[in-house]
Amino acid sequence: MGRITDKAKAEEETLSDGQRVRHLSLRHFRNYESLDLEIGDGINLISGKNAQGKTNLLEAIYLLSSTRLLRGQRDTEAVQEGFDRAQVSAELAPLSTLLSVALERGLRKRVLLNGLALPRASDVLGRLPCVCVSSADLPLISGEPADRRLFLDLELSQLYPAYLRHLAVFKRAVEQRNSLLKLAQTQHVEAELFETWEAQMALHGAALRVQRMEFLSNLVPYAQEAQSCIGDGENIELSYLPKDDAVTEEELAAAFKDGRRQEIARGSTLIGPHRDDFRVDVAARDARLYASQGQQRTSMLSVKLGTMELERGERGSAPLLLLDDILSDLDESRRARLMSLIVEHAGQTLLTCTEPAAAGKEVLRSAQVYRVEAGQVSK
Ligand code: ATP
Ligand code: MG
Q1: What does the pLDDT profile of the chain (379 residues) look like in tens digits?
Q2: Closest protein CA for atom 10 of ligand 1
């Protein structure tokens, strides 16, 4: 790992090593009234018909890992209809840590570690590292720059708490500067006011860019390995696309200063890492424009599974892998190679599908199989 990552690593608190979920319990979460479930260390295959609660189960774990839901606008949408409060808890191995998230209508979500509420929900990031893959991640390849930035921000925040701090300060400074830009449309605004926020944007923005670029370049070989395996020799390239040429803090500060006049007319900040993107090339073509459905899904999976390997390298153990309904659009040979890759490389994994047979014999041999029916789970 390079210099910057080492620095980011040195800045942050010690991360938990090798956490996995031993026991999951849900109360009034989505369509689960009450669930207590032991989860195996290897591959857990969650099968069931449509609308039974497979995705909801993965979402509960994702919530513990990231404090975010997989879908929905507000956290309380996940509280079971007709109830006011949901609780998702997991006992983690090997340290028997108890991690809980409580969602209550009208209140802020609370994250508890061994029964004690964390000051900020985001303090939990990195405790239960997890890589989650579902069709909802396809915009990572085919969507807008914002979709790809979200991927970078989520992954880097999970890996490095220092990144999250840079991001929070940077975003706040951009908001403040945007308010000034709008104000300046109708009245004179002192240059010093701009400079205060621009200095923060430059300092933290430069750090964000450096860490994102380093993350992507570290990710490339892992993503290539996965793509080549699933896509039978197919190549993938990832390249960061900054919105402007500024690299250092000084260059960014100068760019913000130079951009002021034009940006006052627009009322928003047009350059900087909050406008950056990255490009994915599959088989030497821009995947956003040219990749087939199967290639899009393969490259999305390769980026995510590459992230899993990168995290393993950083932490010394694989993050939990959540795979929701990932097999559609893949032909039989890609499916088989994907499943072999997961059996060989993944740590604790939860994989959903409507028919267990779809996961293939190799997975079935090693997996614990669960059946979900109307919010009840049986082995
Ligand atoms: P599919 O195979 O179609 O993806 P699934 O098993 O993944 O199905 P889920 O997405 O887990 O299904 O959803 C199961 C059910 O949970 C849905 O019918 C949905 O309406 C229900 N549900 C979602 N949110 C809530 C809630 N807050 N209260 C009660 N039920 C909910
Ligand atoms: Mg589902």
Answers
A1: 334 444 444 333 334 456 899 999 999 999 999 999 999 999 999 999 999 999 999 999 999 999 999 988 899 999 999 999 999 999 999 999 999 999 999 999 999 999 999 999 999 999 999 999 999 999 999 999 999 999 999 999 999 989 999 999 999 999 999 999 999 999 999 999 999 999 999 999 999 999 999 999 999 999 999 999 999 999 999 999 999 999 899 999 999 999 999 999 999 999 999 999 999 999 999 999 999 999 999 999 999 999 999 999 999 999 999 999 998 889 999 999 999 999 999 999 999 999 999 899 999 999 999 999 999 999 9
A2: 55
Ligand nearest to the CA of 85: 1
**How far does residue 186's CA lie from ligand 2's centre (Å)?**
50
Beta partners for residue 29, in sequence order: 32, 79
Q: Match 């000051």 to its residue by tokens.
A: 119
Counting atoms of ligand 1 from 1, which one is nearest the CA of 354?
A: 2
End-to-end CA distance of the chain: 42
Per DSSP, what are the bridge partners of residue 104?
85
* Atom number, ligand 1, closest to the C-alpha of residue 59: 11
- 47-80 as b/e: b if 16+ CB within 10 A: bbeeebbbbbbbbbbbbbbbbebbeeeebbebbb
On whether the CB atoms of residues 99 and 112 are closer than 8 A, the answer is: yes
What's the gap in Å between 149 CA and the centre of ligand 2?
A: 25
The two structure tokens encoding residue 297:
């899904």
Q: Give 310's contacts (C-beta < 8 A, 6+ positions apart).
A: 215, 218, 219, 222
> Residue of the nearest CA to atom 30 in ligand 1?
31
Q: Which of 341, 220, 178, 248 is CA-nearest to residue 4? A: 248
Q: For residue 47, how far is the Cα from the chain centroid?
A: 24
| CA atoms lying within 13 Å on the CB side of residue 361 | 0
User: How many Å apart are CA 317 and CA 49, to the nearest integer?
Assistant: 33
Cα–Cα distances (Å) from 59 to 125, 182, 202, 215, in that order, read: 16, 39, 36, 26
Question: Which region, left, alpha or beta, applies to residue 110 given φ > 0 means left and ψ of -120 to 50 means alpha?
Answer: beta
- Exposure class string for 295-330: b at 16+ Cβ within 10 A, else e: bbbbbbbbbbbbbbbbbbebbebbbbbbbbbbbebb
